[in-house]
Amino acid sequence: MKKLSILGSTGSIGTQTLEIVKNNPSEFRVAGLTTNNNIELLKKQIQEFKPIAVAVMDEEKADFLKGDININVYSGIGGIIKIAKLNEVDTVVNSLVGSIGVKPTIEAIKNKKNIALANKETLVTAGSIVMEEIKKNNVNLMPIDSEHSAIFQCLNGEDINDVNKITITASGGPFREFTKKQMENATAKGALKHPTWSMGDKITIDSATLMNKGFEIIEAHWLYNFPYEKIDVVIHPQSIIHSIVEFKDKSVIAQLGNPDMKIPIQYALSYPKRLDSISRKLNLTEIKNLSFEKPDFERFPCLKFAYDAGKEGGTMPAVLNAANEIAVQHFLGNKIKFLDIPKLIGKMMQRHKLIKNPSLNEILDVDKKIKEETKKIIRKIEY
Ligand code: MN3
Known about the structure:
Rossmann fold
């Protein structure tokens, strides 16, 4: 039986993880849960899954919860790290959103926990440090993201030296067919209508800019120790093929499934086993066609920024991520326009003085500074 801590249990990935736990009571048990501030839902989760401890990012809300229940309630980032390090836990599901997720992953690895990773910032900003710690502590890092789960499955039992190319599929997001002009007037409401996947707000906006795909390129680079030059993106609007690996003998392996995050989440938790699933079966004859297009780097400059940042390495991906995080936050709050997102990221990357082999503290420092600077620029362009 695997004992889990779920960081971000009230979010989209967190609640779906709990559904899987509920459906596989003999496989998984919950030991720790954390939320940003949704204590109403957390309370329900505590009653149902009976963890030994929880953490709430928001200190006031944590105090509020303490009066209500009789298990340990921790707070702040320190509290989240405590849940990631719980003695009773062997696997940490990190479904936090944002760079706040980096430290808990690293602390969990140092405490010999296996990681099921949904938090993108962990590998985007600190990939080299994280992969080193994974090796040093001899633990498993399983991707939860559908694309990386697909690549992992295509590579199962293969030698990475036999791989010619990894192709990550992208739905293209809600603005796939938008002209630049249409994008100028795009609203947060419109961007939140994703055609195939149902996800949290931040990642849905990242899908509209294709930044999400950019992050996935950087993650794939670290997960599979694979050069950027051989990682491609193809637009595949139906989101049935989740990624593709081409080998040197020109054989191509792809992984397919309905766009349902419960499938890759469950595999990340059950690996190396496969378990029965409540998810809907893929019915190929129901799908009229599977189509593929080249991504347009001109309309979606965030994708290009991600390649650039990844290839530059060092602190550049942290700059990409920090500027994006703040820009998306302000776009969601209707403070800036859709096309301001790439403008802000480009500006912050251009200005940045690269640190080549940064320590974790240097990365987190850059993260903080870039966020502050991005906010300063936004204050000037707000209307
Ligand atoms: Mn994905």
